[in-house]
Fold this sequence. Notes:
By secondary structure, the chain is of the alpha/beta class.
Amino acid sequence: MAQTLSLPCPHRNRYNGPTMSGPDFALQGKLAIVTGGANGIGFAAARLLAASGASVCIFDLERENPHLAAQQIGARAFPADVTSRASLDAAFAAAGPPDIVIANAGIAAEADFLDHSAEDWERIVKVNLTGAFHTVQSAARLMKPRRSGAIVLTASTNSYDGESRLAAYNASKAGLLGLVHTAANELGPYQIRVNAVCPGLIRTRLTERHFSTPEVLRDYFRHIPLGRGGEPGEVAQAIVFLASGLASYITGATLFVDGGQMAAKFGAWSEATAEFREGQWRLR
């Protein structure tokens, strides 16, 4: 995991698009829990859930300053490690039975396949996949007696492809889809819905170095029909939609939030008709 931050992550307030708050999501009276909620996509989801009327609890490692993040949006924070069932169960017990759970905690590390260490493999799978299993199972046990609940996992476009230098990350994110399908099947009779979002390249702390390199973005965004990367708030809107009553007949589904990347086989952009400027492809 990343090092401790003494100040709010700069990406917490980057997205200035629609808030989608109010009666559209109708989350008043709902208790929502977000793992990995102190930064990036998790924080954006927590913020939008709070803006939509939910009572929000952020679960994150103490070194990620979850209390600082929670103060910014009127939420509560509980230190929790998703790789420890005891830590996670203690946080759920303190927060109370949830109506909504966003299983978002995740990490990544790059290495060539033949150089990928066993330690990094085990660490990434433990957080991204096993941590999600612990989160979903713990949440579902609390939701089952109430015969209702919504769980959303943060998967990835890498759940479907084999992007180089990300073997453990790709495998862990692919595994989440099996977890979503199985949990949706078994928990559906209890009216617990389980879905996933699959973000593409989103500007977060983990990806900022890519967004700071125009020559990398130029080639990468060539294959994205919308011609740009995404912001955490745009993923948050998809997450909160799936968690809300607007998605009441949706379970076992995955929603791409990738600017059309997974729909495009070859480059969507060419210098013959477009130019790359200000970090985005635009038609001439």
